[in-house]
Amino acid sequence: MSLLLSLILSINILTTHPITSQANMSVLVQNLKTGEVIDSYRADKVVPPASVMKLLTTGAALEMLGPGFRFPTILEYTGTIENGVLYGDLYIKGTCDPSLGWKGRTAFLDKWVKAIRTAGISRIDGAVIADMTMLDGDAQNPGWLCEDAGNYYAPGIFALNYYGNTMNIVLRSAEPGTVATILSTEPKVEGIEFINRVRCDRIQYDGAFVSGLPYSKERYLTGAVPSNLGTFGVKGDLPNPGLLLAQHLTSRLRDAGITVRHEAAYEADFNPLTPPRNELYTHYSPPLSELIQETNVNSNNLYAEALFRYLGARLTLPGTIHNSQEVLRDFWRRRGVNIQNAIIKDGCGLAPQDAVSAKTFVQLLTFMSHSDNRDAWMASLPISGQTGTLTSLCPKTPLEGRIHAKSGTIAGTKNFAGYIDMPNGDTLVFAILVNSAPGKARNIQTVIQQYLLDVYKKQSEK
Protein backbone atom coordinates (compact mmCIF):
# COMPACT_ATOMS: atom_id res chain seq x y z
CA MET A 1 0.00 0.00 0.00
CA SER A 2 1.47 3.34 -1.01
CA LEU A 3 1.94 6.16 1.47
CA LEU A 4 -0.42 8.35 -0.59
CA LEU A 5 -3.20 5.75 -0.41
CA SER A 6 -2.61 5.41 3.33
CA LEU A 7 -2.99 9.16 3.74
CA ILE A 8 -6.23 9.26 1.78
CA LEU A 9 -7.85 6.33 3.54
CA SER A 10 -6.98 7.51 7.05
CA ILE A 11 -8.05 11.13 6.80
CA ASN A 12 -11.22 10.11 4.96
CA ILE A 13 -12.53 8.74 8.23
CA LEU A 14 -12.70 12.31 9.53
CA THR A 15 -13.56 14.14 6.32
CA THR A 16 -16.41 11.86 5.19
CA HIS A 17 -18.06 10.76 8.43
CA PRO A 18 -21.46 12.47 8.94
CA ILE A 19 -20.45 13.70 12.38
CA THR A 20 -17.13 15.29 11.41
CA SER A 21 -17.32 15.94 7.66
CA GLN A 22 -18.56 19.53 8.04
CA ALA A 23 -16.62 20.30 11.21
CA ASN A 24 -13.98 22.99 11.56
CA MET A 25 -10.89 20.79 11.72
CA SER A 26 -7.10 20.98 11.90
CA VAL A 27 -5.15 17.71 11.84
CA LEU A 28 -1.47 16.77 11.72
CA VAL A 29 0.29 13.47 12.42
CA GLN A 30 4.08 13.17 12.12
CA ASN A 31 6.82 10.69 12.88
CA LEU A 32 8.60 12.26 15.83
CA LYS A 33 12.06 10.98 14.88
CA THR A 34 12.07 11.60 11.13
CA GLY A 35 9.58 14.44 10.83
CA GLU A 36 7.73 12.50 8.12
CA VAL A 37 4.15 13.71 7.72
CA ILE A 38 1.81 10.75 8.19
CA ASP A 39 -1.43 12.68 7.79
CA SER A 40 -2.36 16.33 7.38
CA TYR A 41 -5.58 18.27 6.93
CA ARG A 42 -5.64 22.06 7.23
CA ALA A 43 -2.76 21.74 9.65
CA ASP A 44 -2.14 25.53 9.66
CA LYS A 45 -5.80 26.35 10.39
CA VAL A 46 -6.30 27.87 13.85
CA VAL A 47 -9.34 26.54 15.72
CA PRO A 48 -10.51 26.66 19.35
CA PRO A 49 -8.32 24.16 21.25
CA ALA A 50 -10.47 23.89 24.40
CA SER A 51 -8.39 22.29 27.17
CA VAL A 52 -5.60 21.26 24.80
CA MET A 53 -4.61 24.91 25.39
CA LYS A 54 -3.18 23.72 28.71
CA LEU A 55 -0.22 22.25 26.80
CA LEU A 56 1.01 25.76 25.94
CA THR A 57 0.73 26.82 29.59
CA THR A 58 2.17 23.76 31.32
CA GLY A 59 4.97 23.36 28.78
CA ALA A 60 6.07 26.97 29.18
CA ALA A 61 5.81 26.80 32.98
CA LEU A 62 7.86 23.62 33.11
CA GLU A 63 10.60 25.07 30.90
CA MET A 64 10.70 28.48 32.59
CA LEU A 65 10.43 27.36 36.21
CA GLY A 66 11.70 23.77 36.25
CA PRO A 67 9.99 20.64 37.63
CA GLY A 68 11.17 21.31 41.17
CA PHE A 69 9.74 24.82 41.43
CA ARG A 70 7.40 25.39 44.38
CA PHE A 71 5.06 28.33 44.89
CA PRO A 72 5.89 30.18 48.14
CA THR A 73 3.15 31.56 50.37
CA ILE A 74 4.75 33.85 52.93
CA LEU A 75 3.60 34.85 56.41
CA GLU A 76 4.81 38.39 57.09
CA TYR A 77 4.11 40.97 59.76
CA THR A 78 4.24 44.69 60.29
CA GLY A 79 5.14 46.42 63.52
CA THR A 80 7.04 44.74 66.35
CA ILE A 81 6.82 41.72 68.62
CA GLU A 82 7.17 42.67 72.28
CA ASN A 83 6.45 40.47 75.30
CA GLY A 84 4.43 38.02 73.18
CA VAL A 85 2.33 40.70 71.48
CA LEU A 86 2.50 41.49 67.78
CA TYR A 87 1.81 45.21 67.60
CA GLY A 88 0.85 45.12 63.95
CA ASP A 89 -0.81 42.92 61.37
CA LEU A 90 -0.06 39.43 60.14
CA TYR A 91 -0.09 39.10 56.34
CA ILE A 92 -0.54 36.06 54.13
CA LYS A 93 1.32 37.00 50.94
CA GLY A 94 0.13 34.95 47.98
CA THR A 95 2.05 34.13 44.80
CA CYS A 96 -0.67 32.22 42.89
CA ASP A 97 -0.24 28.76 44.45
CA PRO A 98 -3.35 26.81 43.32
CA SER A 99 -2.89 23.96 45.80
CA LEU A 100 -3.60 25.63 49.18
CA GLY A 101 -6.47 23.73 50.81
CA TRP A 102 -6.95 21.60 47.69
CA LYS A 103 -9.77 19.08 48.29
CA GLY A 104 -10.32 20.57 51.75
CA ARG A 105 -6.87 19.65 53.05
CA THR A 106 -6.18 22.37 55.60
CA ALA A 107 -3.69 20.65 57.94
CA PHE A 108 -1.04 23.12 56.76
CA LEU A 109 -2.80 25.77 58.86
CA ASP A 110 -1.66 23.95 62.01
CA LYS A 111 1.94 24.38 60.83
CA TRP A 112 1.30 28.06 60.31
CA VAL A 113 -0.09 28.38 63.84
CA LYS A 114 2.96 26.55 65.20
CA ALA A 115 5.31 28.88 63.31
CA ILE A 116 3.50 31.92 64.71
CA ARG A 117 3.73 30.56 68.24
CA THR A 118 7.41 29.71 67.72
CA ALA A 119 7.99 33.33 66.76
CA GLY A 120 6.91 34.21 70.29
CA ILE A 121 3.48 35.56 69.41
CA SER A 122 0.61 34.89 71.81
CA ARG A 123 -1.48 37.89 70.80
CA ILE A 124 -1.96 39.84 67.57
CA ASP A 125 -3.01 43.40 68.21
CA GLY A 126 -4.09 43.79 64.60
CA ALA A 127 -5.61 41.41 62.05
CA VAL A 128 -4.76 38.57 59.72
CA ILE A 129 -4.74 40.09 56.24
CA ALA A 130 -4.75 38.25 52.91
CA ASP A 131 -2.30 39.93 50.54
CA MET A 132 -3.56 39.30 47.00
CA THR A 133 -1.76 42.22 45.38
CA MET A 134 0.57 40.19 43.15
CA LEU A 135 -2.16 40.14 40.49
CA ASP A 136 -4.34 42.94 39.19
CA GLY A 137 -8.10 43.10 39.72
CA ASP A 138 -9.05 40.95 36.71
CA ALA A 139 -9.77 37.82 38.70
CA GLN A 140 -12.22 36.67 36.03
CA ASN A 141 -10.74 36.43 32.55
CA PRO A 142 -12.71 38.83 30.28
CA GLY A 143 -12.44 36.29 27.48
CA TRP A 144 -14.62 33.80 29.35
CA LEU A 145 -18.37 33.58 28.77
CA CYS A 146 -20.56 35.39 31.29
CA GLU A 147 -22.56 32.20 31.76
CA ASP A 148 -19.44 30.44 33.03
CA ALA A 149 -18.63 33.04 35.72
CA GLY A 150 -19.34 31.62 39.16
CA ASN A 151 -19.22 27.97 38.13
CA TYR A 152 -16.68 25.68 39.77
CA TYR A 153 -14.84 25.10 36.49
CA ALA A 154 -14.38 28.85 35.90
CA PRO A 155 -13.40 30.26 39.28
CA GLY A 156 -11.77 33.62 39.79
CA ILE A 157 -7.97 33.46 39.86
CA PHE A 158 -6.19 35.27 42.67
CA ALA A 159 -2.71 35.59 44.12
CA LEU A 160 -4.20 33.62 47.02
CA ASN A 161 -6.21 30.61 45.92
CA TYR A 162 -7.78 28.38 48.56
CA TYR A 163 -9.98 25.29 48.74
CA GLY A 164 -9.76 24.97 44.96
CA ASN A 165 -11.63 28.31 44.92
CA THR A 166 -14.72 26.12 45.09
CA MET A 167 -17.62 25.66 47.49
CA ASN A 168 -20.18 22.89 47.57
CA ILE A 169 -23.72 24.22 48.00
CA VAL A 170 -25.94 21.64 49.69
CA LEU A 171 -29.60 21.70 48.61
CA ARG A 172 -32.67 19.57 49.17
CA SER A 173 -35.19 18.89 46.42
CA ALA A 174 -38.87 18.20 47.00
CA GLU A 175 -42.05 17.95 44.94
CA PRO A 176 -42.12 18.89 41.24
CA GLY A 177 -42.71 22.60 40.79
CA THR A 178 -41.15 23.63 44.08
CA VAL A 179 -37.90 25.50 44.60
CA ALA A 180 -35.00 23.51 46.06
CA THR A 181 -33.98 24.51 49.59
CA ILE A 182 -30.41 25.67 50.31
CA LEU A 183 -29.17 23.98 53.47
CA SER A 184 -25.50 24.92 53.81
CA THR A 185 -22.18 25.43 52.06
CA GLU A 186 -18.86 23.63 52.46
CA PRO A 187 -16.76 25.46 53.34
CA LYS A 188 -18.95 27.93 55.20
CA VAL A 189 -18.73 31.38 53.61
CA GLU A 190 -19.61 34.27 55.88
CA GLY A 191 -22.04 36.83 54.49
CA ILE A 192 -22.79 35.04 51.24
CA GLU A 193 -26.24 35.67 49.78
CA PHE A 194 -28.03 33.31 47.40
CA ILE A 195 -30.71 34.22 44.92
CA ASN A 196 -32.17 30.77 44.46
CA ARG A 197 -34.26 29.84 41.42
CA VAL A 198 -33.44 26.13 41.23
CA ARG A 199 -36.63 24.25 40.28
CA CYS A 200 -37.48 20.71 41.23
CA ASP A 201 -38.60 18.99 38.04
CA ARG A 202 -39.33 15.59 36.50
CA ILE A 203 -35.85 15.16 35.05
CA GLN A 204 -33.10 12.61 35.56
CA TYR A 205 -30.05 14.91 35.47
CA ASP A 206 -28.55 17.75 37.49
CA GLY A 207 -29.29 20.96 35.58
CA ALA A 208 -28.46 23.48 38.31
CA PHE A 209 -26.03 26.34 37.63
CA VAL A 210 -24.22 28.86 39.81
CA SER A 211 -23.27 32.34 38.60
CA GLY A 212 -21.63 35.35 40.18
CA LEU A 213 -18.56 37.58 40.08
CA PRO A 214 -15.31 37.60 42.08
CA TYR A 215 -15.49 39.46 45.39
CA SER A 216 -19.30 39.69 45.13
CA LYS A 217 -21.23 38.16 48.01
CA GLU A 218 -24.17 37.35 45.72
CA ARG A 219 -24.50 34.02 43.95
CA TYR A 220 -27.38 33.14 41.62
CA LEU A 221 -28.65 29.58 41.41
CA THR A 222 -30.73 28.71 38.38
CA GLY A 223 -31.83 25.67 36.39
CA ALA A 224 -33.51 22.47 37.53
CA VAL A 225 -32.80 19.31 39.51
CA PRO A 226 -34.65 15.99 39.85
CA SER A 227 -37.60 16.24 42.22
CA ASN A 228 -37.69 14.30 45.51
CA LEU A 229 -33.94 13.68 45.26
CA GLY A 230 -33.25 14.51 48.89
CA THR A 231 -30.01 16.34 49.64
CA PHE A 232 -27.42 16.90 46.97
CA GLY A 233 -24.56 19.26 46.17
CA VAL A 234 -24.00 21.88 43.49
CA LYS A 235 -20.51 23.31 43.05
CA GLY A 236 -19.80 26.99 42.61
CA ASP A 237 -16.79 29.26 42.97
CA LEU A 238 -15.65 31.02 46.13
CA PRO A 239 -16.14 34.79 45.87
CA ASN A 240 -12.98 35.65 47.81
CA PRO A 241 -10.76 32.66 48.63
CA GLY A 242 -7.98 34.80 50.10
CA LEU A 243 -10.31 36.34 52.66
CA LEU A 244 -11.65 32.89 53.54
CA LEU A 245 -8.09 31.68 54.13
CA ALA A 246 -7.40 34.65 56.42
CA GLN A 247 -10.63 33.91 58.30
CA HIS A 248 -9.69 30.25 58.71
CA LEU A 249 -6.22 31.13 59.99
CA THR A 250 -7.73 33.64 62.42
CA SER A 251 -10.07 30.93 63.73
CA ARG A 252 -7.21 28.42 64.11
CA LEU A 253 -5.13 30.96 66.01
CA ARG A 254 -7.96 31.73 68.40
CA ASP A 255 -8.65 28.04 68.92
CA ALA A 256 -4.98 27.63 69.80
CA GLY A 257 -5.21 30.37 72.42
CA ILE A 258 -3.56 33.10 70.36
CA THR A 259 -5.69 36.24 70.56
CA VAL A 260 -6.40 38.16 67.36
CA ARG A 261 -7.88 41.57 68.05
CA HIS A 262 -9.53 42.34 64.70
CA GLU A 263 -11.41 40.26 62.15
CA ALA A 264 -9.70 39.01 59.01
CA ALA A 265 -9.33 41.31 56.01
CA TYR A 266 -7.78 41.36 52.56
CA GLU A 267 -5.83 43.67 50.25
CA ALA A 268 -6.25 43.40 46.49
CA ASP A 269 -4.71 46.61 45.11
CA PHE A 270 -1.00 46.59 44.30
CA ASN A 271 0.97 49.40 45.95
CA PRO A 272 4.67 49.70 45.05
CA LEU A 273 5.16 51.98 48.06
CA THR A 274 4.07 49.36 50.61
CA PRO A 275 6.51 49.50 53.56
CA PRO A 276 8.73 46.43 53.97
CA ARG A 277 7.47 43.68 56.24
CA ASN A 278 9.19 41.10 58.37
CA GLU A 279 9.13 37.51 57.10
CA LEU A 280 7.93 34.99 59.64
CA TYR A 281 7.37 31.72 57.77
CA THR A 282 7.25 30.42 54.21
CA HIS A 283 4.94 27.66 53.05
CA TYR A 284 5.82 25.85 49.81
CA SER A 285 3.51 24.12 47.36
CA PRO A 286 4.13 20.64 45.98
CA PRO A 287 6.70 20.68 43.14
CA LEU A 288 5.64 21.95 39.75
CA SER A 289 5.94 18.43 38.31
CA GLU A 290 3.00 17.40 40.52
CA LEU A 291 1.02 20.56 39.82
CA ILE A 292 1.20 20.18 36.03
CA GLN A 293 0.25 16.53 36.38
CA GLU A 294 -2.96 17.60 38.13
CA THR A 295 -3.42 20.27 35.46
CA ASN A 296 -3.14 17.96 32.46
CA VAL A 297 -4.37 14.60 33.76
CA ASN A 298 -7.55 16.03 35.29
CA SER A 299 -7.76 19.12 33.05
CA ASN A 300 -7.80 21.46 36.04
CA ASN A 301 -8.67 25.00 34.93
CA LEU A 302 -7.72 26.60 38.25
CA TYR A 303 -4.23 25.12 38.16
CA ALA A 304 -3.72 26.10 34.53
CA GLU A 305 -4.87 29.68 35.07
CA ALA A 306 -2.77 30.08 38.23
CA LEU A 307 0.32 29.04 36.26
CA PHE A 308 -0.69 31.33 33.41
CA ARG A 309 -1.14 34.33 35.71
CA TYR A 310 2.07 33.63 37.63
CA LEU A 311 4.11 33.67 34.41
CA GLY A 312 2.69 37.10 33.62
CA ALA A 313 3.52 38.38 37.11
CA ARG A 314 7.16 37.44 36.51
CA LEU A 315 7.23 40.08 33.78
CA THR A 316 5.88 42.96 35.85
CA LEU A 317 3.80 43.64 38.97
CA PRO A 318 0.94 43.49 39.35
CA GLY A 319 0.52 40.53 37.02
CA THR A 320 -1.98 41.13 34.23
CA ILE A 321 -3.74 38.82 31.82
CA HIS A 322 -2.19 40.74 28.93
CA ASN A 323 1.30 40.11 30.29
CA SER A 324 0.53 36.42 30.68
CA GLN A 325 -0.61 36.26 27.07
CA GLU A 326 2.57 37.97 25.87
CA VAL A 327 4.86 35.80 27.98
CA LEU A 328 3.29 32.64 26.58
CA ARG A 329 3.44 33.87 23.01
CA ASP A 330 7.04 35.10 23.30
CA PHE A 331 8.25 31.93 24.99
CA TRP A 332 7.03 29.60 22.27
CA ARG A 333 8.07 31.93 19.45
CA ARG A 334 11.63 31.86 20.77
CA ARG A 335 11.52 28.03 20.80
CA GLY A 336 10.70 27.87 17.09
CA VAL A 337 7.02 27.11 17.56
CA ASN A 338 4.82 28.89 15.00
CA ILE A 339 2.58 30.93 17.27
CA GLN A 340 2.09 33.91 14.96
CA ASN A 341 -1.52 33.21 14.00
CA ALA A 342 -2.59 31.75 17.33
CA ILE A 343 -5.07 33.62 19.52
CA ILE A 344 -4.26 33.33 23.23
CA LYS A 345 -6.84 34.64 25.68
CA ASP A 346 -6.22 32.42 28.70
CA GLY A 347 -4.12 29.51 29.89
CA CYS A 348 -6.74 26.79 30.20
CA GLY A 349 -8.76 26.95 26.96
CA LEU A 350 -12.04 28.09 28.47
CA ALA A 351 -12.14 31.24 26.34
CA PRO A 352 -14.04 30.54 23.09
CA GLN A 353 -11.77 33.05 21.28
CA ASP A 354 -8.68 30.88 21.83
CA ALA A 355 -7.44 29.53 18.50
CA VAL A 356 -4.40 27.33 17.80
CA SER A 357 -3.47 25.13 14.85
CA ALA A 358 -2.60 21.44 14.83
CA LYS A 359 0.82 22.39 13.45
CA THR A 360 1.54 24.61 16.45
CA PHE A 361 0.70 21.82 18.87
CA VAL A 362 2.82 19.28 16.97
CA GLN A 363 5.77 21.68 17.01
CA LEU A 364 5.28 22.26 20.75
CA LEU A 365 5.06 18.53 21.47
CA THR A 366 8.14 17.88 19.37
CA PHE A 367 10.09 20.53 21.29
CA MET A 368 9.03 19.11 24.66
CA SER A 369 10.00 15.58 23.62
CA HIS A 370 13.63 16.76 23.34
CA SER A 371 13.57 18.86 26.52
CA ASP A 372 15.63 18.11 29.62
CA ASN A 373 12.24 18.12 31.35
CA ARG A 374 10.83 15.40 29.11
CA ASP A 375 10.20 12.91 31.92
CA ALA A 376 8.14 15.38 33.98
CA TRP A 377 6.31 16.42 30.81
CA MET A 378 5.37 12.90 29.79
CA ALA A 379 4.30 12.06 33.36
CA SER A 380 1.86 14.98 33.23
CA LEU A 381 -0.09 13.58 30.28
CA PRO A 382 -3.00 11.16 30.77
CA ILE A 383 -2.76 7.71 29.18
CA SER A 384 -5.31 6.26 26.78
CA GLY A 385 -7.77 3.87 28.38
CA GLN A 386 -6.09 4.22 31.78
CA THR A 387 -5.85 7.64 33.41
CA GLY A 388 -7.53 11.03 33.70
CA THR A 389 -9.43 12.50 30.81
CA LEU A 390 -8.12 9.78 28.46
CA THR A 391 -9.71 6.92 30.38
CA SER A 392 -12.49 6.62 27.80
CA LEU A 393 -10.18 6.86 24.76
CA CYS A 394 -9.32 3.55 23.09
CA PRO A 395 -9.88 1.22 26.09
CA LYS A 396 -9.49 -2.48 25.29
CA THR A 397 -8.04 -1.68 21.86
CA PRO A 398 -4.48 -1.95 20.50
CA LEU A 399 -4.03 1.72 21.47
CA GLU A 400 -4.81 1.31 25.15
CA GLY A 401 -1.77 2.53 27.08
CA ARG A 402 -0.01 3.73 23.91
CA ILE A 403 -1.30 7.32 23.73
CA HIS A 404 -0.04 10.07 26.01
CA ALA A 405 -2.08 13.16 25.21
CA LYS A 406 -4.16 16.11 26.36
CA SER A 407 -7.84 16.22 25.50
CA GLY A 408 -10.15 19.19 25.10
CA THR A 409 -13.94 19.11 25.24
CA ILE A 410 -16.70 21.69 24.86
CA ALA A 411 -20.08 21.52 23.15
CA GLY A 412 -19.57 20.27 19.59
CA THR A 413 -15.81 20.01 20.12
CA LYS A 414 -13.42 17.18 20.83
CA ASN A 415 -9.67 17.69 20.54
CA PHE A 416 -6.57 15.62 21.25
CA ALA A 417 -2.85 16.33 21.01
CA GLY A 418 0.00 14.11 22.13
CA TYR A 419 2.08 11.06 21.31
CA ILE A 420 1.47 7.51 20.10
CA ASP A 421 4.00 4.80 20.97
CA MET A 422 4.39 2.42 18.02
CA PRO A 423 5.35 -1.28 18.31
CA ASN A 424 8.59 -0.75 16.36
CA GLY A 425 9.82 1.86 18.83
CA ASP A 426 8.83 4.89 16.75
CA THR A 427 6.67 7.64 18.19
CA LEU A 428 3.97 9.54 16.33
CA VAL A 429 3.24 13.09 17.43
CA PHE A 430 -0.24 14.33 16.59
CA ALA A 431 -2.92 16.97 17.02
CA ILE A 432 -6.55 16.37 16.05
CA LEU A 433 -8.78 19.39 16.58
CA VAL A 434 -12.45 18.92 15.68
CA ASN A 435 -14.76 21.89 16.27
CA SER A 436 -18.39 22.76 15.52
CA ALA A 437 -19.42 19.17 14.85
CA PRO A 438 -23.05 18.10 15.35
CA GLY A 439 -23.92 15.80 18.20
CA LYS A 440 -22.33 15.07 21.53
CA ALA A 441 -18.61 15.15 22.28
CA ARG A 442 -18.53 11.42 22.98
CA ASN A 443 -19.81 10.73 19.47
CA ILE A 444 -17.09 12.94 18.00
CA GLN A 445 -14.57 11.03 20.08
CA THR A 446 -15.80 7.74 18.63
CA VAL A 447 -14.95 8.97 15.13
CA ILE A 448 -11.55 10.25 16.26
CA GLN A 449 -10.87 6.91 17.91
CA GLN A 450 -11.62 5.13 14.63
CA TYR A 451 -9.21 7.47 12.89
CA LEU A 452 -6.44 6.92 15.45
CA LEU A 453 -6.82 3.15 15.24
CA ASP A 454 -6.66 3.31 11.44
CA VAL A 455 -3.47 5.42 11.51
CA TYR A 456 -1.94 3.07 14.06
CA LYS A 457 -2.84 -0.02 12.01
CA LYS A 458 -1.44 1.36 8.75
CA GLN A 459 1.77 2.61 10.32
CA SER A 460 2.27 -0.73 12.09
CA GLU A 461 1.98 -2.51 8.72
CA LYS A 462 4.59 -0.34 6.97
Features:
26% strand; disordered N terminus; Beta-lactamase; alpha/beta; 23 strands; five-stranded mixed β-sheet; D-tyrosyl-trna(Tyr) Deacylase, Chain: A; 28% helix; five-stranded antiparallel β-sheet; 462 residues
Could you name the CATH homologous superfamily of the largest domain?
A: DD-peptidase/beta-lactamase superfamily
Which secondary-structure class do the elements indicate?
A: alpha/beta
Strand arrangement within the widest β-sheet reads 2-1-23-22-21
Helix content: 25-40%
The CATH architecture of the largest domain can be named as 3-Layer(aba) Sandwich
Q: Indicate how many domains the architecture comprises.
A: 3
Per CATH, what is the topology of the largest domain?
Answer: Beta-lactamase
| Rg for CA atoms | 24 Å
Number of helices: 10
Distance between the termini: 8 Å
Morphology call: globular
Plain-language structure description:
This protein has 462 residues and is an alpha/beta fold. The chain folds into three domains: 3-68 and 289-461, DD-peptidase/beta-lactamase superfamily (Beta-lactamase); 72-137 and 241-286, D-tyrosyl-trna(Tyr) Deacylase, Chain: A; 146-237, no CATH class. It has ten helices and 23 strands. It has helices at residues 3-16, 54-65, 108-118, 241-255, 288-297, 301-313, 321-334, 358-369, 374-379, 441-461, and strands at residues 24-31, 37-41, 46-47, 72-77, 80-82, 85-87, 90-93, 123-124, 128-131, 166-173, 181-186, 193-196, 199-201, 207-211, 218-226, 230-237, 259-260, 265-267, 278-284, 356-357, 403-410, 413-421, 427-435. Strand 21 and strand 22 form a beta hairpin. Helix 6 (301-313) packs across helix 7. The longest helix is centred in the last third of the chain and has 21 residues, at 441-461. The radius of gyration is 24 Å and the shape is globular.
